[in-house]
Amino acid sequence: MQTDDLSAKFSALADPTRRAILARLTEGEASVNDLAQPFAMSLAAVSKHLKVLEKAGLITRGKEAQWRPARLEPMGLKGMAEWLEHYRRYWETSFDRLDAYLSKIQKGDPRGPRN
Q: Which residue ranges make up each domain of the chain?
């Protein structure tokens, strides 16, 4: 995944309205009218949010006459998940070291674990 692509995805998810739209789309495809219902904003504003999500590759839009349902694009999230996985492993390793250190302290050795 290119860095620009990753930046576009994280930028799209920085907005709480867009995150809420994605959460709704996990239940299945929806029209702009359906997606706009929980928000106090115009259909045009919701459409702009959908364009950002579509440009970032997080959703796709159908082309069924007047009805253009939005669908979650699961592969759009895959690259983000892979990028985050590296940091998840780092955090787990750090927490494991902290756990070992705290266990050592609880046993009375203030020097903690030796490497």
A: 3-106
Task: Round to whole Å and give the CA distance between 42 and 92.
Answer: 43
Length of the chain: 115
CATH number at 3-106: 1.10.10.10
Alpha helices in the chain (DSSP H): 3-13, 16-25, 32-36, 43-55, 74-106
pLDDT tens for 4-63 read 889 999 999 999 999 999 999 999 999 999 999 999 999 999 999 999 999 999 999 988
Around Cβ 97, how many Cβ atoms within 10 Å? 13
